Amino acid sequence: MKERSEKVRGEKEEAEENEQKEKKKKNKQKKKKTNKQKKKKTKRKNEMVFTVDELKRYAALKYHKRASHLCRRT
Questions:
Q1: Residue with more model confidence, 6 or 29
Q2: How far is residue 55's CA from residue 49's CA, in Å, rounded to a whole number?
Q3: Which residue intervals are annotated with compositional bias (Basic residues) in the record (predicted)?
């Protein structure tokens, strides 16, 4: 009887450890995905930055309100 209960305990512990490992793997994968998405967003923002001359052109076309916050003053 004791041997059976020990085997059952060992199996339960192994199952719990495996579940925890799987959860950790999934969390790591999620973090990798979110980091990739953040990098893409910052890349897009950096591409959207305009010079002052370009902004003046946009202002002439009535886009100043939309584009002025993207101006990088140099």
A1: 29
A2: 10
A3: 23-44
Query: b/e map of 57-69 (b: 16 or more CB within 10 Å)?
Result: ebeeeeeeeebee
Non-local (6+) Cβ contacts of 74 within 8 A are 51, 52
Q: How far apart are the two ends of the chain, measured CA to CA in Å?
A: 80
Residue 22 pLDDT exceeds 80: yes
Q: What tokens does 71 get? A: 């101006």
64 has pLDDT over 60: no
| pLDDT above 70: residue 33 | yes
Give the Cα separation of 53 and 71 in Å (integer): 10
Full-prediction pTM beyond 0.70?
no
Residue 51 Cα distances to 17, 41, 42, 66, 71, angstroms: 55, 20, 18, 14, 6
Token pair, residue 13, equals: 């512990």
